[in-house]
Amino acid sequence: MNTRTLCLLAMAGGAGTAQADWSATLTGASDYLFNGVTQTGHQPAVQGSLDWSGDAGLYAGLWASNVDFGDDTEAEVDGYLGYRFEFRPGYSVDAGLALYTYHGGRDSSDADYPEAYLKLGIAGFNLNAWYTHDYSGLDVGHVVLMLQKDFEINDRWTIATQLSRSTSLDTDRFAWDGDRDHYLHWQIMNRTSYAGFDLALGLSGTTLSDEAGDTAVLFTIGRTFTF
């Protein structure tokens, strides 16, 4: 899912809500970056989500995007279910399950895989972890650890930063850059809102030598509708 902020998971859950709420988000992006690796061949993406948030922090949703892996796969559709609560101001726990699915070609679904995640909010920092036992349907364990921090410049502008490490737990089955067990990803985005639209512009890069992980300018524009 989009940069796990993202990408990656766009969570709608809020702790202690009095009733269930629905929302939908439509986003246009200059690229679909998943942990810094393009999923669209560095081409634009159109993405959408449908989110439900219930009482006391329970949430669920669907997220979709076009993709281009150089084969017949054309779309990614993800589902997620989780629970988030804030036990004191500035401190929160968010845990859940996600399922990544791929569509368009006869064998596209071979890359489907589930994932568990845990997110900790600690005094303005977010420490997030994702784990799957079947990364991209390859029967290999994979872990992503991410540190996030947002810096509020004023009431209109926010600088969002993140640093993550993606690690294969079995390089005989899957390795990054051919023989590496991990790579690092960094991202910095300048975010604002205008006339009901959410706008972001920034840079994303990785330590991968493959051009799919090259440093890229990322621009996104989105709008959320509640009902």
UniProtKB/TrEMBL annotation:
The keyword Signal applies. InterPro entries: CHP02001. Residues 1-20 form the signal peptide. It holds the Pfam family Gcw_chp. Keywords: Signal. This is Uncharacterized protein.
